[in-house]
Each structure stands twice: as C-alpha cells, then as structure tokens.
Amino acid sequence: MAVKIRLARRGRKKLAMYDIVIADARAPRDGKFIEKIGTYNPNTNPASINLNEDSALKWVLNGAQPTDTTRAILSYKGILLKKHLQVGVNKGAISQEIADSKFNDWKTSKDLKITGKTDGLEATKAADKAARMARETEINAARAAAIAKKNTVEEEVVAEETEAPAAEGEATTESAE
Asked: CA 73, CA 35: separation in Å to the nearest integer?
C-alpha cells in the first residue's frame, strides 16, 4: 500500500483550509485517511501551519511520500532537514548532538525570518493606516474651511440685506418729516 502525505480540503468557498493527512494513495482527496498530522491555512499572511512534527517525521522516515505542496510545507517546517540529518546519524556519518545543534541553528534562523516578516507586515500596515489618517485629516480640514467660508459669505449677505432695509426705512422717515 502506497502511503501519501497530502492535503484534504475543508472550509467554505474561496476560503479554504486544509488538513495535512496521511492517506492511502488510492483514497479520494477528502476521503478516508490514516492519520491527521496538522492543518494549513493559506488565507493568513504568512500562512498558518500547525503540524505535529514528531508524527510527520515518523511517517517520512517510514517511507510516506509527500505531494508537492506538502513537501514544501514539510521543508518550510524543517521536517525534511531533520530527516536528512537523522539518516546521517543512522549511517554513522554524524553524531546525534551535531545533528541536533545543526537543526536548532536552522530553526532559530527560520524563526527570526518569520518574525521579521510579520513585524515588517505590521509596520507597513501601521504606516499605511497613519498615511490614510493624515489624508483624511487634510480632507476634513479642507471641508471645514469650505463650510466656514460659506457661512461667513452667507452672514455677510444676511447682514447687508438687514442693513439695506433699515437704511431705506431711515430715509423714508427723514423725508416724511
């Protein structure tokens, strides 16, 4: 029986999430599976990947073949590197301590990259929000100035209209006397 590590789709239309599953190669995509080892959500930035790394490593070492997408996910999480190092330990090429230290160094550098990306995205988002707020403040100030100008023009017109009849009234009272 050929065993595959692949994605099983779930979620709603245009907002899919995927389960990372171990399944028989002959089973349908969303059908029967042997074990669920994680989830993958491509809708977030960066994509959210929750993976049981011990179980994934066990299956990869036992010969389960990942599909292209799951191979990329396993590589991203370091499972394939860990397999590579473990094969070297099993053959006697390196010791377990050296393999663990290499993996931990890689893992810390990978975590720093991911943290840097999320921080950069948050900074970009905050800068964009500040720029939008500044632009909105400018627009509101321009609107307020236009309204104030309109109100002063209307007040002047009303003042002129009230002064004109009063002046005419004084002229008629003076001529009547």
From this structure: 17
